[in-house]
């Protein structure tokens, strides 16, 4: 019989308006993985949804965090400072279950997690599709945000990500490579791996890493 994951949504006030936490509850959770979305999309991103479907079956409650600008229906993300402020304001809701919280996200959400994780008391950081630099501008590196997190950090990066390919990352941040994946971890139809296999690389790597937290 397939185990059904309990899902619930919680609106949380922040200085920028209400955020929304989409909870995917593990029956016997040992930790919470909180994941923010990117600047170009929401919690429906394929990698976030894959983790929310897989990890609760392994004792990890997943909280997908919808930033206030998305909840309000806006199409353009605010400045990084506003994203950080909202994340700080909703953090007590993420910590409320009384479990260790791993901070993470994809793209802009990963940057938020890196900038705030240590001060908020996160156990570790998960960076999905970390935007190491703007496309075509490797000289504008954001590596300092990643290496400055000050906590155990796992980076998962698509092999074709124009915001930073795995081989571009600094020593000590060796990413898990998703074969043929782009910034959204989409793979071409002619790739040697299927979309399902690419997402399994992500869920397997994150699941194994979280076991050591």
From TrEMBL:
> Mind telling me which SUPFAM superfamilies this protein's record contains?
alpha/beta-Hydrolases (SSF53474)
Q: Give all residue intervals belonging to the KANL3/Tex30 alpha/beta hydrolase-like domain.
A: 32-209
Q: Which UniProt keywords apply?
A: Hydrolase
Q: Which Pfam families match?
A: Abhydrolase_11
Name of the protein this chain belongs to: Alpha/beta family hydrolase
Highest taxon of the lineage: Bacteria
InterPro entries per the UniProt record, alphabetical: AB_hydrolase_fold, KANL3/Tex30_Abhydrolase, NSL3/Tex30
Q: Which residues cross the membrane?
A: none
GO molecular function per UniProt? hydrolase activity
Annotated PANTHER family: TESTIS DEVELOPMENT PROTEIN PRTD, TESTIS-EXPRESSED PROTEIN 30
């Amino acid at each position: 019989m397939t185990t059904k994951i309990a899902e619930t949504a919680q609106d949380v006030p922040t200085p920028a308006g209400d955020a929304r936490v989409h909870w995917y509850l593990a029956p016997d959770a040992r930790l919470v993985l909180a994941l923010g979305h990117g600047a170009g999309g929401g919690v429906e991103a394929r990698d976030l949804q894959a983790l929310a479907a897989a990890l609760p079956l392994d004792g990890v409650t997943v909280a997908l965090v919808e930033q206030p600008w998305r909840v309000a229906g806006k199409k353009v993300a605010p400045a990084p400072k506003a994203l950080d402020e909202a994340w700080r304001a909703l953090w007590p809701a993420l910590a409320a279950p009384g479990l260790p919280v791993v901070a993470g996200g994809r793209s802009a959400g990963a940057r938020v997690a890196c900038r705030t994780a240590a001060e908020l008391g996160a156990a570790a950081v998960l960076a999905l599709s970390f935007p190491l630099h703007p496309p075509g501008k490797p000289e504008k590196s954001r590596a300092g945000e990643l290496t400055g997190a000050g906590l155990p950090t796992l980076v998962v990066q698509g092999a074709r990500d124009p915001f930073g390919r795995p081989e571009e990352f600094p020593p000590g941040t060796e990413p898990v490579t998703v074969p043929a994946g782009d910034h959204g971890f989409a793979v071409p139809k002619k790739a040697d791996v299927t979309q399902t296999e690419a997402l399994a690389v992500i869920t397997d790597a994150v699941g194994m890493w979280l076991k050591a937290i």
